[in-house]
Recover the amino acids of this structure.
């Protein structure tokens, strides 16, 4: 039973560029949430996808967008990268109708130079 | 006031010690509570859910106090491998169901 997978594991970009991060949820899960975790901070909720729609969103600008595919996998897109976007981006999967427990992928470490 | 607050530590304890972490939350409508563990440069992993009646898993005990709006985590007989950051997480149910995370409490267990 595969857990949550994310790609790539590491990424280096420059200011102004665009990036796409990918996530495959745990088998059987239908909901994907994305978090940003800066060094020394707790994860900050970006948004959550269910049934290919954004269900709720945290306090992040429109530069952050996402998508969920019919197979429940998801992408996080960030446009016009800023230095402050450097962080660990975590994907978590869950079952909407189930418990609140979320399972995390290993994350993608994004460095913006 | 932050929605979820934790003492960032670090807590430095010797092996075998008992250590307790507290976490306060501001929204009385919160319905689910969790402790996650995060090792350096790794993803958070669920340690335990926190139930109203309190729950225990081996050396770990979690308690919830709704009246005072805090949860606690007690670790007995600390092991070197317990060294990590412990994150308190609160879920607000309903239409805005999402996880709110504390900043984490850093624990270092020393030989």
């Amino acid at each position: 039973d595969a857990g949550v997978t994310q790609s790539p594991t590491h990424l280096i970009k420059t200011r102004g560029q665009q990036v796409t991060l990918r996530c495959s949820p745990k088998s059987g899960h239908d909901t994907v949430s994305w978090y940003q975790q800066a060094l020394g901070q707790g994860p900050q909720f970006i948004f959550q996808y269910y049934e290919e729609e954004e269900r709720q969103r945290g306090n992040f600008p429109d530069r952050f967008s996402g998508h969920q595919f019919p197979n429940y996998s998801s992408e996080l897109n960030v446009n016009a990268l800023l230095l402050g976007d450097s962080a660990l981006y975590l994907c978590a999967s869950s079952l909407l109708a189930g418990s609140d427990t979320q399972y995390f992928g290993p994350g993608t470490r994004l460095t913006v130079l | 006031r932050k929605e979820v607050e934790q003492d960032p530590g670090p807590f430095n304890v010797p092996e075998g010690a008992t250590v307790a972490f507290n976490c306060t939350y501001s929204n009385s409508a919160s319905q689910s509570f969790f402790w996650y563990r995060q090792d350096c440069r790794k993803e958070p992993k669920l340690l335990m859910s926190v139930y109203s009646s309190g729950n225990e898993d081996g050396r770990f005990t979690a308690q919830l106090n709704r009246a005072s709006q805090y949860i606690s985590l007690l670790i007995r007989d600390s092991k070197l491998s317990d060294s990590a950051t412990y994150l308190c997480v609160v879920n607000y149910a309903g239409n805005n169901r999402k996880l709110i995370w504390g900043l984490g409490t850093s624990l270092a267990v020393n030989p």
DSSP finds no helices and eleven strands in chain A. The mean pLDDT of chain A is 92. The two ends of chain A are 37 Å apart (CA to CA). Residues 13 and 112 of chain A are 5 Å apart (CA to CA).
